[in-house]
Design goal:
Family: Belongs to the PTH family.
CATH topology: Rossmann fold
Number of helices: 6
Protein name: Peptidyl-tRNA hydrolase
Mean pLDDT: 93
Largest sheet: 7 strands, mixed
Number of strands: 7
CATH superfamily: Peptidyl-tRNA hydrolase
Strand content: 15-25%
Structural class: alpha/beta
CATH architecture: 3-Layer(aba) Sandwich
Shape: globular
Keywords: Cytoplasm, Hydrolase, RNA-binding, tRNA-binding
Catalytic activity: an N-acyl-L-alpha-aminoacyl-tRNA + H2O = an N-acyl-L-amino acid + a tRNA + H(+)
Enzyme class: hydrolase
Low-confidence stretches: none
Distance between the termini: 33 Å
């Protein structure tokens, strides 16, 4: 069974942990509840959790997954992601990157394959390091900044109290979308996610 590499983008350390920019890593923390073990340091420059994601109907082990949080800052995520792809022999069709998305309303979720980076420096770095844009993405909407706030400042702020009230549900739904992708494939996972969220 092929291994899936699921990367949650963010910045390292407790200072950034609650930032909007770190929502990808927050989704990984939800998924990690279903993978035995704990995150450990990997030589590629990330912390990883390698195991089976839950169980399939009938009790068989779920798909093998490597959950990965790059230890680098967001805008240089490419090097650790490329290193992990080489180490685990993962092709772009088995790489999922979970990231914040300014161009989607808050709590909106979208699954896609390939495309541009939309100004997201983490995605730019990954595409450049891989020499390929055809990997999978789970976009987690955080909305646009209010008024004239600089988007760079907005993504590096913690979720507001109003946003946090809905954040837990969004993270659980994002984790479900990942589970669907790994078990039933992109098209069916997109249909399930986008129909439920229409």
């Amino acid at each position: 069974m092929s291994v899936w590499l699921v990367v949650g983008l963010g910045n390292p350390g407790p200072t950034y942990a609650g930032n909007r920019h770190n929502v990808g890593q927050m989704v990984l923390d939800v998924l990690a509840r279903d993978v035995p073990g704990s995150f450990t340091t990997h030589k590629a420059g990330a912390t990883v959790l390698d195991g089976r994601l839950g169980t399939l109907p009938g009790g068989a082990p779920g798909p093998r997954v490597v959950l990965a949080k790059p230890s680098s800052y967001m805008n240089v995520s490419g090097r650790p992601v490329a290193g992990l792809c080489r180490f685990y022999d993962v092709e772009p069709d088995h790489l999922l990157v979970i990231h914040d998305e300014l161009d989607l309303p808050a709590s909106t979720l979208r699954l896609k394959r390939g495309g541009g980076e939309g100004g997201h420096n983490g995605l730019k770095s990954i595409s450049q390091a891989l020499g390929d844009r055809d990997y999978l993405r789970l976009r987690v909407g955080i909305g646009r900044p209010p008024g004239r706030m600089d988007p760079a400042d907005y993504v590096l702020r913690d979720f507001s109290a109003a946003e946090r009230a809905e954040l837990g549900v969004t993270l659980e739904e994002a984790a479900d979308a990942v589970r669907d992708l790994l078990s039933i494939g992109l098209e069916k996972a997109q249909t399930a996610l986008h129909t439920a969220r229409a």
